[in-house]
Amino acid sequence: MTDAASTSSYNLKDLIGETALRSLATVFAESAPGFQRKRFLAVATEGLEPLSITQRVHRVAEALDAALPGSFAAKLDAVVAAAPKTGGAFMNMGLCDFVGSYGLHDPAASLKALKRMTGHGTAEFAIRPFLRQDLAGTLKTMTRWTTDRDEHVRRLASEGSRPRLPWSFRLDALVADPAPLAEILQALRADDSLYVRRSVANNLNDITKDHADWVFAHVADWDLTDERSAWIVKHALRSRIKQGDARALKLIGASEGAMAVVERLAIEPSRVALGGEVEIAFELRSTAETTQRLVVDYAVHYVKKNGRASPKVFKLKTVELEPGASTPIRIRRALRNFTTRTHYAGTHAIEVMVNGQKLAGGTFELLID
User: Of the residues 64, 139, 163, 362, which has the maximum number of CB atoms within 10 A of its CB?
Assistant: First the structure.
């Protein structure tokens, strides 16, 4: 969802606009006997314009239920058969949402359908009502999916079970106690697919927000000489690394603390208009007597609507510096509005952080017409 979330709100909504809905209606009209095309379009397009992308996803599910004939089982067969033909991930999320919205009474058939459909449009959101209804039973099925040959199915096992999945409701039982996730996370700790590993890392990162000690204990026996497992741990603990947590720094081989200085920090331009970018450049020099591994991040204190500032930490790089050595570091930060962030005019502070310690800072002025 990350790439899609960075698209403008209008473009996201347009992915399930009237043109796309008419194309979907054609798919079902050709493949599902008795499909009521006019009924589908009437339900799907009524009051469409103000709806968000997630509301439009659910609207697709509602329209399919209204327009497909027969029992839930017959409708489910038609939806599963159509999934490979729609050609759009968000539209297929609507098909998956049909399963999550109307199939709770038949979890066996519904979960089997989501497993088949997830490769055409992620079922990570649609599976969550089943987890909320029957956590143990649904996790048992998802645990079996961790050995599936299809990376999309394996990813569904970890992504769908995230306690704090963005764009979805929290799984309160797993926020309170992540222990039921242990078997899934353990099974995928060295998955060959980066797509799956990123999901496992995100699941663990969710858990660190409530149970950091549990995560450290869970990964304690992972073989971190395996690059796949090491990658997961580094990304799972990214929030703790940014905070300078000694346990997290040790796991990724970084030095505790930071014996270093930031020199010649430049933030340019000092005044920048929305839509432009700001460049952050500096020299990082070691003041230690031994070689250090240093995790370099930077924080932007974004001005909010109320005039106050809130920091957002971004990763820069990890470097190894010999005693007295230095390295140049440079990054450009785009200043554009996204669905996840709206910018406001004012003075924005920037801080350079090394192993979680703030070593230098400066400001720039954001101008908005």
Answer: 64
174-218 tens-digit pLDDT: 999 999 999 999 999 999 999 999 999 999 999 999 999 999 999
List of residues 6+ apart from 254 with CB closer than 8 A? 241, 293, 294, 295, 318, 355
User: Which of 86, 115, 100 lies closest to 54, judged by CA?
Assistant: 100
The answer to whether domain 2-251 and domain 260-367 are alike in fold is no
- Give SS3 for 123: coil
Q: Report the alpha-carbon distance of residue 118 to residue 132 in Å, rounded.
A: 19
95 φ/ψ sector (left φ>0, alpha ψ -120 to 50, else beta):
alpha
Q: What is the pLDDT of residues 247-306, one digit of tens each?
A: 998 898 887 778 999 999 999 999 999 999 999 999 999 999 999 999 999 999 999 999
User: Per-domain residue ranges for the chain?
Assistant: 2-251, 260-367
Cα(189)–Cα(176) distance, integer angstroms: 22
The CATH architecture assigned to 260-367 reads: Sandwich (2.60)
> What does CATH list as the number for 2-251?
1.25.40.290
pTM score: 0.80
